[in-house]
Specification:
single chain; 465 residues; mainly alpha; Serine Threonine Protein Phosphatase 5, Tetratricopeptide repeat; 3 domains; 1% strand
């Protein structure tokens, strides 16, 4: 079977659009399809056949598109999509009833789903060329259900066309938001495909930032500008567009500052938090954030570029430390004490005798009631030196599950990396005398917004309701 596939020469960067190659692909596709249909149950041969079929179909799409034989291309893809749709059902049934712990079949299902999303997208593109908008939308939506970011971008652009009878600005916005926030699974795609999808996400982030700016949601506009700049910094798409993104971000920051000055401070602050997060914000928390914003507003009103704005960030950072201390410094401490049957009258160092985890020695004592941001990082996570990712400590994960939060481990890397960023770029320069760099107005507002967003993330992740 592999030889049948290799004869087609599909792995080259330059696709061959000649009749000989397309005939070879048809012959190989028929052989693989026969293998699938002749086997009642899923086996390794069938898994291999599904993968090859999906890759051949992608080549055939390019061939028919290049030759402008759209109708034939649609027929081929419709047949192939039915084969793969049925295949996913068949393979899921095999996982359920036969190969319950088989990683190979689960990986094949994920890979076929990835290829299926591409075929739905390809079919949507063919219907676009044929000017059959209803079928184009239907296939793009099927691709979107499988997280195809190209389909999200194209459909968002299509809905944003005011001259079209399909004009739907709200649907367009939702798709831009979804694409901008999509976590792209790198496991089953090539490096080139990853870069292409990150480029689409980069462009969608810029468009989303513009939408948020137009809707006066300036804090969100700043967030998407930052995301776009991060993608550019990683993948180097286009240096020329960076100044435009920075100008948009500066405008949003200026407008946000105006918003803060003109509206009630408390109302502005409350609107920055989710309904869930508000339940766990104390009056002291609000006062600390309000204090930071008032100091920032006062310094900004002086119009003096030589001022150091670091004093405006201290209260907001103190609020973050207070919230993390409540969960990790107190409630986690109580959980460990209860777990180990430790009496509070005992000296906290008695935990050392248990040695369940080395990091327990880093937990605060009831006497000092103090933990710094670095302590929280050490208390709930460790870093995988091979991947660079943070993973949740086993005991802390048990603590979170006990609180009714079963998926905290899925968020730990993002949770800790954002905390490290705040610690390294904002907290440490503000707090330590060896760092005397001036904090500018823009640095300060960046810090305040990032800290508030992170506090919101903490309250959403650390509490069940």
């Amino acid at each position: 079977m592999t030889k049948d596939f290799q004869k087609i020469n599909l792995k080259n960067d330059q696709y061959r659009y000649d009749d000989k190659t397309i005939n070879q692909s048809r012959t190989a596709y028929k052989k693989f399809k026969d293998v699938i249909q002749e086997n009642e149950y899923v086996n390794n041969l069938v898994l291999e056949a599904y993968i090859y079929c999906s890759q051949i179909l992608q080549y055939q799409y390019l061939y028919y598109k290049y030759k402008k034989r759209i109708t034939e291309g649609i027929e081929v893809l419709n047949d192939g999509i039915k084969l793969l749709d049925d295949g996913i059902v068949k393979m899921n049934d095999a996982v359920e009833n036969i190969f319950k712990d088989s990683e190979s079949i689960k990986m094949t299902i994920a890979s076929v789903k990835e290829n299926l999303s591409i075929l739905y997208y390809d079919l949507g593109m063919l219907y676009w060329l044929k000017k059959d908008e209803d079928k184009m939308i239907d296939n793009f939506e099927r691709a979107i259900d499988l997280n195809h970011i190209g389909a999200m971008n194209n459909l968002a652009y299509f809905y944003a066309d005011e001259s079209s009878p399909y004009y739907n600005l709200e649907a367009s916005k939702d798709l831009y938001l979804r694409g901008s926030n999509l976590k792209i699974d790198e496991k089953y795609i090539t490096k080139n495909m990853l870069v292409q999808r990150k480029l689409i996400q980069f462009l969608m982030c810029i468009r989303t930032a513009h939408i948020m700016h137009q809707e006066t949601d300036y804090a969100e506009a700043i967030q998407y500008c930052n995301h776009a700049l991060e993608l550019e910094n990683t993948y180097h798409f286009s240096k020329d567009i960076v100044p435009k993104i920075e100008r948009l971000k500066d405008s949003a920051m200026y407008r946000l500052n105006e918003q803060i000055v003109k509206t009630s401070k408390r109302e502005t602050i409350e609107n920055m938090f989710s309904d869930k997060a508000k339940k766990h914000m104390t009056e002291e928390n609000y006062v600390l954030i309000e204090t930071s914003l008032l100091i920032y507003e006062y310094l900004n009103s002086l119009h003096n570029d030589s001022l150091d704005y670091s004093s405006a960030t201290i209260s907001a950072l103190k609020c973050l430390e207070s919230i993390l201390f409540q969960v990790i410094g107190l409630e986690y401490y109580d959980y460990i004490a209860k777990l180990n049957h430790v009496d509070y009258s005992l000296v906290p160092k008695d935990f050392k005798k248990k040695q369940r985890d080395k990091y327990l020695n880093k937990l605060c004592s009831r006497k000092s009631l103090r933990m710094e941001l670095g302590s929280f990082i050490y208390a709930c996570s460790t870093r995988d030196m091979d991947t660079g990712k943070y993973v949740v400590n086993e005991l802390f994960n048990e603590f979170m599950i006990d609180r009714g939060i079963k998926d905290f481990a899925d968020h730990i890397d993002d949770f800790i990396k954002k905390l490290v960023e705040i610690k390294d770029f904002y907290r440490n320069p503000t707090a330590h005398k060896e760092r005397v760099d001036k904090t500018t107005a823009q640095d300060c507002l960046d810090c305040l917004l990032n800290t508030i967003r992170y506090i919101n993330m903490c309250l959403d992740l650390l509490y069940k309701n």
